[in-house]
């Protein structure tokens, strides 16, 4: 019976009473079994030369990944994940913690994509697929890679399945809003554009999307505003106007209602840490 092994050699210590230090450093190195292939031996001395444990950050644009999910672009989403893991593998002594947290962030983005559509996330992650438990059980970067791709693929297929079941008129209206959310549009103007009764369209939208038309429009605008807050240095007034809000105070109010915090705080919390 064949089995794989990963061994670590701790730091050299001069005194017997410091043996625990060597053991501790070896334990630290064992975390790297997630990154490196099996059947190798790593040493603390070698790792120290490469400044292991330093907080190296692979620059990953999670907003772009979220956009792939929302647009149901499976090919681009898979390529994004592959490129991210390739980048992590290429960096010597990349912290396993950073790799794991970035991978879990991708899974959270998948969950958020479903939440934004008021979809049930239970089918995406079963009871045994708890984020943190799965992270602890993952034995290799290949396994982690496959798990993230599986979650992203299931997310997109769930979104596609939902949209295929929606009334054709609501699908057309949703697509219209997705493209022209920054314009001065409302339920009345949309109803006129599609030559239907506004009250009828409003009720149909609620029935099919489980939310009001105005809620859907605001959600689209706020999602775009969040991207701009993280990726640009535009003033809040400029961002508000870019996503369809003439009044910045109203934009601030809608943003706070949707996210729990004001735009300025969101930018401070996310811009510097956006990967």
TrEMBL record:
This is HTH araC/xylS-type domain-containing protein. GO terms for molecular function: DNA-binding transcription factor activity; sequence-specific DNA binding. The keyword DNA-binding applies. Residues 171-269 form the HTH araC/xylS-type domain. It comes from Paenibacillus contaminans. Pfam families: HTH_18. Coiled coil: none annotated. PANTHER family: ARAC-FAMILY TRANSCRIPTIONAL REGULATOR, HTH-TYPE TRANSCRIPTIONAL ACTIVATOR RHAS. SUPFAM superfamilies: Homeodomain-like (SSF46689). Keywords: DNA-binding, Transcription, Transcription regulation. It comes from the Bacteria.
